[in-house]
Amino acid sequence: MSEVAPAVIDEEERLCWYAMSATFGRALKAKEYLEKNSVECFVPMKYSVAGRNASTKKLSLVPAVNNLLFVHSQKSCIQELKSRLSYLQYHTRPDGLGRNIPIVVPDKDMQQFITLCEQHIDKLRYLSPQEVDLSQGTPVRIVGGIYDGIEGTFIKLLRHRSKKFIVHIQGIAAVMIADISDGHLQVIDP
């Protein structure tokens, strides 16, 4: 029994990226609170035009995916913070045993997602997991330029003339770069 306990402690205390939800559009409020408590987090952002007429319209930065944020911390720390923020919840997935477990995003995937999201916010399009079938695409790596080394899927989407490069976080979101030339892509062998 004592051999099992250290593995459980390691899992609870390991630094991971957790996909989380802040209900009722409070992702930025949760991010501010978490950062005040020295917890790293990320909210994908996009530019949006706000205002009803030409004189009041302005461009503002808003969360790209409603209620979504990613938190990089130990599970025990997040549990403590969740007790103070009732609107902060885990995104979960079924584990096959009838339970839902928090979605953990691998560090490499999260770093690529952040790099992509922070470069050209106005040239990205965020997609829900239902909008894209990555099984039809080709796994590729970008070679050169500001996205050098980022891996994703090169795919033809419905209602788009050219193929698109997509970085996907399983079950949460996908980010599409508007256009990227074939010359900057290297096919990854499966």
Structure description:
With about 190 residues, the chain is an alpha+beta fold. It is about 25% helix and about 35% strand. The protein has four helices and 15 strands. The protein has helices at about 5-15, 25-35, 75-85, 105-120, and strands spanning about 15-20, 40, 45-50, 60-65, 70-75, 90, 90-95, 100, 105, 125, 140, 150-155, 165-170, 175, 185. Strands 10-14-13-12-11-15 form a six-stranded antiparallel β-sheet, with helices on one face. Strands 1, 2, 5, 6 and 9 form a five-stranded antiparallel β-sheet that branches. Strands 3-4 form a two-stranded antiparallel ribbon. The termini are far apart. Residues about 1-5 have low confidence and may be disordered.
Would you spell out the secondary-structure blueprint of this structure?
Elements: H1 4-13, E1 16-22, H2 27-36, E2 40-42, E3 45-50, E4 58-63, E5 68-73, H3 75-84, E6 88-90, E7 92-94, E8 100-102, E9 104-105, H4 107-119, E10 124-127, E11 138-142, E12 151-155, E13 164-169, E14 173-177, E15 185-187
Antiparallel strand pairs: 1-5, 1-6, 1-9, 2-5, 3-4, 7-8, 10-14, 11-12, 11-15, 12-13, 13-14
* Overall geometric form: globular
Classify the helix fraction into a percent range.
10-25%
Which ranges are low-confidence, i.e. pLDDT below 50, for 5 or more consecutive residues? 1-5
Gyration radius, in Å? 19 Å
What is the rounded distance between the termini? Answer: 40 Å
Quickly give the structural class.
Answer: alpha+beta
Estimate the mean pLDDT confidence: 84
Number of beta-strand segments: 15
Provide the β-strand percentage band.
Answer: 35-45%
Instruction: Tally the helices.
Output: 4
Q: Largest sheet, order of strands side by side?
A: 10-14-13-12-11-15
